[in-house]
Every structure is written in C-alpha cells, then in structure tokens.
C-alpha cells in the first residue's frame, strides 16, 4: 500500500520537470534577440516572430488541450509533448537560417502548450480539495519561477557565449524527463474513449485565438491602424463569437464555456486576466527602462529580476499551505494591495532611480503576485465538477495567453503615445535635443505603469467578493475517483 501512495508523487515529479523546462524556455530568447538578429542578418520585426510565433502556437493548441486530456492518457500526451519539445530544441540549436530556427521554435511551442494544462489536471486529480492548495502552490513555483529565471540565464550566456548554447543547455534537460516518462510514467487520469473532436470548433478556435493573439502582439510594433492588425483582430473576434455560440449548442464542446455559470470560477478568471495584464507591464516596461534609459547590461537586467523570482519560488508552497487553511480571500486582498502599491511606485521612476531601489520594488511586487495567482486560480477550479477540470484549466491558460498579448499591446501603445506627445512638449519648451528622447520615454513608461495601477486596482476590488467554494462530490465523481485508483494501482 505504501508504494501505491507514493506513485502519484513520482508521476507528478516527472511532469513537473517537463513543465519546468517547457515554461522556462518561453522567456529564454527575449534578451538574446539582438544577438540572433546580428548573427542571422534579420531585422527586429522578423526576429520578434520567435516570440510571437511561440505565443500563437500556444494560443491555438491550449484550447484543444481539454479534448486531448479527456481522450488520451496523461502518459501518451506527456511523451508526445516532450518529444516535440526536444525535436524543436535540436532543430533550433543547429538552425543554419532564420526559417529553420522559427520552425524549431514553433515545434517547441507545440510541445510546451500541452504541458501546463496536463500538469494542472493531474494535480487536480491526484489531490483532494483540502490538500490542493499546497500542491498547486508547488505548481505555482513552476509557473512563475521558470520564466523569471530565463532572462537571467539568457543574459549571462549571450554575454559570454553564442545564443545557440541556450538550446544546447535545454536539450539534455528536456531529454531526461522524456526518458523518465517513457519508462516510469503511469496514467493518473480517466479517459472518455467516446468523445470526438469537433473539427469546426477547432478551426474557429485556431482562427479566433490565433487572430487575436497575433493582432494584439503586432499592434505594439506595427501600429493599431495597420491593415494586417485590424483584419487579424476582426477575424479573431468574429471567429471567437461564432466559436462561443457553437460551444453552447454542442453536447460535448471543444471548450465547455458553460462552466462560467459557477460564480467563483468566473470571478477567478476575471481577477486572473486583470493581474496578468498588470504583471506583463513590468515584464515589458522594466527591460526598456533598465537597458535603454539606465544603460544597464543584459546580464545585470536579468540579475535585477532574479530576487523576485526567488521570492516567488519560496512563497508559492507557503501560500499554497495558507490557502488550504484560510482560503483565497485572505491571501488575495493583501497580495493585490501590494501589487497596486508597487505598480504605482513604478509610475514614479526617474533618471536617477537606483538599481537596488528598483530591485526592491520589483521583488516586493513579485511577493504580492505570488499571494494571488495560484490561490485565486485554484479557488475557481475547486468550484467545478471533476469532469470540467480539463475545460477549466484550458480556459485559464488560454485567457492568460490572451491577457498577456492584449495587455502588452495596450501598454506599449500607451507608452508610445505618451512618449510622442511628451517629446513634442519638451521640444517646444526648448529642452536639449539629446535629452528629449530619454525624458519622453521615461514619462511614457511612468504613465503606462500608472494605467497598469488601475488595472491591478480592478483585481483588488474584485477580490473582496471571493468566497470559499463548497462543492459536494457526486456519486458519478466518486465512481471516477474509484476507477482512477484502479488505474494507478
């Protein structure tokens, strides 16, 4: 019996390793883009596809993850996902031209897109509601620390070695969980062999989420009036509307949006979207401020964000245990108050702001976010019946991708618009030409953080309505739990 109880922890450990590598890879190239541009002879708009393309593949595949997780075993999905990820990594490492590098990056994304929903579903299946907070707290460590460490490691490697080393480092780390998955991984979830894929829904989902993600991601560089931006966003929105109506008519939809009838899940989604949009403000605006205005090197920029990542890593399991004991509301209100305060402090940056003061504010901000993200998300998922878990996790992960793209484009637009107007005012006032750009950009960044403060404030106000969900376990769910135990034993 002892071995049977230990089995889920071994399975989860393998999934954690794979998810950490996949998520860590998302932010690995951000600082390396200038070196890639120089080495492969491409411009910034072309290089940006390495980030945009990755996001697009995630946005298209994550909604389909609900179907895949219900139809296939967690072992099969993990092996396929990690195989794709490893293949993409190898292709990117040896890429002779940009097109091969982009293909490798998108194959990586195809594997990565399935890891987060898969891991979250296994966690929900493996742990009872009363222990779920602690488990999801450890899961939160993967979700927030992995992408935070990426820029630090990337900055160090790019400064001393070729950008290709980034992929050669990731490859063996990806092959280890793949090998463990092949030989050690067992199934922990129950499959519905009768479920079928609605191809029309998949096509509408791909057009919808793909169009919205691409349109908003491109708006920051191409401008909102660019025909490509306007058309892709319009096609995306129309496709999503049709997709939504179709899901309401299907008995077994690709994405079960009817779960929004559960108030706490709907509330957790709204808070997660607001906090994701606000969180992206620091991820995008801080590197611009630190490297462009302050002139700090890439490696020092990454190191500035490292304490925040370490704090989140330490706090995620702690907040998970606190969530099990006190619920999400007790954590979310002070956590979001910290986020609102620190975001406002970032709106007061100056040319003389010290490196360590910026580091302290950023670290405190990460502390606040660590108190909010996983507790609020887990609180919403705990409301759902077990059969809806794949849909809940798919919706949450998709919304995070969309919120990130929309938030990024919106805040960059706010920054650019404010920068242009301030530059004109400074020029009219007779400011020295060599000072205008830095002063105008600083004002644009500050104003974007000020706007972001209000987005975080919305999340704070919503957090006062959080309640601890009480959901009775149905006899059908008890039968599923029993059948899961039979599979794992």
From TrEMBL:
Its main location: membrane. It is found in: Cell membrane. The chain crosses the membrane at residues 9-29, 49-69, 76-101, 107-127, 134-153, 165-185, 197-216, 228-245, 265-290, 302-323, 330-349, 355-377, 445-466. It comes from the Bacteria. Signal peptide: none annotated. It is a multi-pass membrane protein. Belongs to the major facilitator superfamily. EmrB family. PANTHER family: MAJOR FACILITATOR SUPERFAMILY MULTIDRUG TRANSPORTER MFSC. This is MDR family MFS transporter.
């Amino acid at each position: 019996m002892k071995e049977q109880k230990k089995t889920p922890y071994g399975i989860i450990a393998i999934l954690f390793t794979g998810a950490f590598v996949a998520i860590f890879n998302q932010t690995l190239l951000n600082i390396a883009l200038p070196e890639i541009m120089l080495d492969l002879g491409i411009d910034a708009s072309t290089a940006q596809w390495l980030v945009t393309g990755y996001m697009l593949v995630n946005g298209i595949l994550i909604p389909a993850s609900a179907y895949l997780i219900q139809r296939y075993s967690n072992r099969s999905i993990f092996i396929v996902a990690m195989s794709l990820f490893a293949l993409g990594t190898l292709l990117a490492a040896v890429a002779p031209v940009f097109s091969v590098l982009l293909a490798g990056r998108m194959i990586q994304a195809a594997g990565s897109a399935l890891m987060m929903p898969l891991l979250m579903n296994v966690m929900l299946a493996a742990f009872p509601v009363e222990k779920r907070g602690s488990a999801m707290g450890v899961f939160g460590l993967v979700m927030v620390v992995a992408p935070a460490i990426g820029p630090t490691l990337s900055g160090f490697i790019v400064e001393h070695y070729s950008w290709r080393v980034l992929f050669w480092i990731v490859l063996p780390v990806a092959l280890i969980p793949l090998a463990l998955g092949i030989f050690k991984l067992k199934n922990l979830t129950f499959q519905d062999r009768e479920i079928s894929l609605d191809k029309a829904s998949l096509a509408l989902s791909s057009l919808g989420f793909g169009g919205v993600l691409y349109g908003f991601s491109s708006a920051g560089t191409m401008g909102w009036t660019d025909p490509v931006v306007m058309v892709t966003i319009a096609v995306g929105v129309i496709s999503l509307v049709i997709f939504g109506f179709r899901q309401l008519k299907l008995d077994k939809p690709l994405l079960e949006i009817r779960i929004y009838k559960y108030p706490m899940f709907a509330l957790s989604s709204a808070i997660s979207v607001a906090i994701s949009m606000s969180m992206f403000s620091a991820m995008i605006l801080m590197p611009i401020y630190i490297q462009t205005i302050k002139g700090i090197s890439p490696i020092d920029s990454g190191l500035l964000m490292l304490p925040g990542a370490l704090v989140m890593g330490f706090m995620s399991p702690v907040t998970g245990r606190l969530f099990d004991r006190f619920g999400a509301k007790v954590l979310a209100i002070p956590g979001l108050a910290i986020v609102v305060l620190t975001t406002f402090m970032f709106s007061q940056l100056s040319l003389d702001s010290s490196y360590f003061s910026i580091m302290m504010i950023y670290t405190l901000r990460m502390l606040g976010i660590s108190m909010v993200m996983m507790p609020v998300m887990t609180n919403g998922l705990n409301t759902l019946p077990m059969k809806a878990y794949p849909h809940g996790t798919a919706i949450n992960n998709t919304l995070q991708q969309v919120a990130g793209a929309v938030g990024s484009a919106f805040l960059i637009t706010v920054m650019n618009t404010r920068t242009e107007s301030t530059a004109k005012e400074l020029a009219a006032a007779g400011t020295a030409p060599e000072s205008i750009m830095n002063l105008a950009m600083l004002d644009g960044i500050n104003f974007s953080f000020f706007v972001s403060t209000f987005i975080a404030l919305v999340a704070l106000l919503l957090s006062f309505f959080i309640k601890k969900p009480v959901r009775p376990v149905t006899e059908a769910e008890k039968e599923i739990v029993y059948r899961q135990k039979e599979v794992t034993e």
